[in-house]
Predict the structure.
Amino acid sequence: MPDFQFESSFLSSPCDLIAGIDEAGRGPWAGPVVAGAVIFPQLKIPEHLAEKLDDSKKLSAVKREELFEELHTCGALIGCGSASVEEIDRLNILQATFLAMRRAVENLPATPSFAIIDGNKVPSGLPCPARSLIKGDALSLSVAAASIIAKVTRDRLMTDLAKEFPYYGWEKNAGYGTKAHQIGLAEHGICIHHRRSYAPIKKYLT
């Protein structure tokens, strides 16, 4: 289960703000990529919440929604950012993910002293020092919280887009290349929210 061990190793003062950062939506064929950033001031978190936080991929949609609401009422500092389909196609998904992460940090109500990034790469241009942490969403409470913020925000966005473009099953598959999504593409082609730089989508451009 995640804890604050990694955060504590970079805490030089009780006033330091350590942010966890994670993304959602690198793999889907449609929609933006979204990043979350979460700070628990003084590394304090309600015990019942700490016991429930985990990598968002390990949690049910219902549990993620519950934790999303709890995170917004527990005193955590939260920022969220995204990069559009146009930016994904223009920059590539890695650079667009980094852009979303920078925007998430910019949208925090306070500038962090240090940031922990889920994965093995650190985006450039952050306003603070940072380190990457592989499987950070399963090891760090801050990163686990960020993963939930990013995932729920993006899932809600894709559900809203599905109301306008109901052919692809986005309210269930969040833009991933499921059978329902493939059938929708075969019958209706692509729309403005599809990532044209992705190989499975390119074949519908001819």
Q: What stands out?
A: The chain has ten helices and five strands.
